[in-house]
């Protein structure tokens, strides 16, 4: 199975040539010839376009040029108030680990205000109970150091858990429940094997995760502002929203993440559980309808958070990415989000905007909205190859397309706005491009009191750059835009570990990285 899925382009081309000789293709060819048609057995060729001005090989330089933002902590602007380390008794690698961690924090101009203290895990009882008790002791001690109550957000406190490799799946869940449900404390779990063998490699990524979980960001891409606005008019305030559906126990749930700054590095996160309808009360609603209902109540909250973070400036454009909607369900999805189809009942987005306009300061608020469906496997799991020449036997020599390629002609539908993106450079196997289907985009021509929608080239350029700003992967682009992977991470955290709503004081932090 692995050898088939990781087939390189040259091998896949030979398979395609072999498919043209199979009996089914030959039978189809004979049938068409009877009708006066001819089956073309050559591969379809199309043009590609490169939309992204950012060179991924220069990504490290981009990060260094963009100043990292330290987390907004308590003692002073650039310091962590307290660090608690929970570990098994007799741990030997703690000293070198804390030294390497401090060195990496210094590169971000972040220091630890007090010496880290340790809470040893007891040796009796079940592992999950012992680690939960140690985590509670560490959090309560840090709260006492900061004179904070148990219901306050322990801003500036960090819990580090050195987990044995054999107990990772057992103790990870109770530790996260203590930090993210019972309290509101930043938590970082690290496997013992990572400290012993790979600390020098993963230390930069580890520190970036810690800074993001505590309210800062490790790096940003300044050029992303130019992708959403003309350079002579300054950046347009734009908010990006990611939506991911998941399942927790027997209930469906929706994870929403929305950017609240113009660098697209700070987010507000919300999880809504979609409860089953009571048949005795009324008609049964579909999952898509209940998802749109949840989004309707979260949308004003996202816009208000954006305005608070940008000195009252409201987003003029709102870009919504939704993960993986089947082709047959897209009409229903559009109906519930934009137009319900029932007389007198608009969709979730127009209804949320009407609710927002009834509040003070949002009376004439009318942003441009873009709604896009993102699929890692497009219709038919399309593959693309770049032809580089011909071999001696006449077989085309092919390779994977270069990174940052956009396919928006010849292979897309004529009746809608869709395109493919090859975000990453693939050296093993054949690349599967990400498919984008734009269901709704406001008019490019401005309406009265409204910002105009985005042009196609700008949408593609912005989407390409958005795949390069995921804080958990500074080495290059990922396959989907950053808000979408954040929503997926949040959904996995709640569904697999928390199994309930997280502490609302953590909504403005990327605690799920």
UniProtKB/TrEMBL annotation:
Molecular function (Gene Ontology), one example: nucleic acid binding
InterPro entries attached to this UniProt entry: Piwi (IPR003165), RNaseH-like_sf (IPR012337), RNaseH_sf (IPR036397)
One Pfam family linked to the record: Piwi
Domain Piwi: 158-499
Alphabetized PROSITE patterns for the sequence: PIWI
PANTHER family: EUKARYOTIC TRANSLATION INITIATION FACTOR 2C
Protein name: Piwi domain-containing protein
Species assigned in the record: Vitrella brassicaformis (strain CCMP3155)
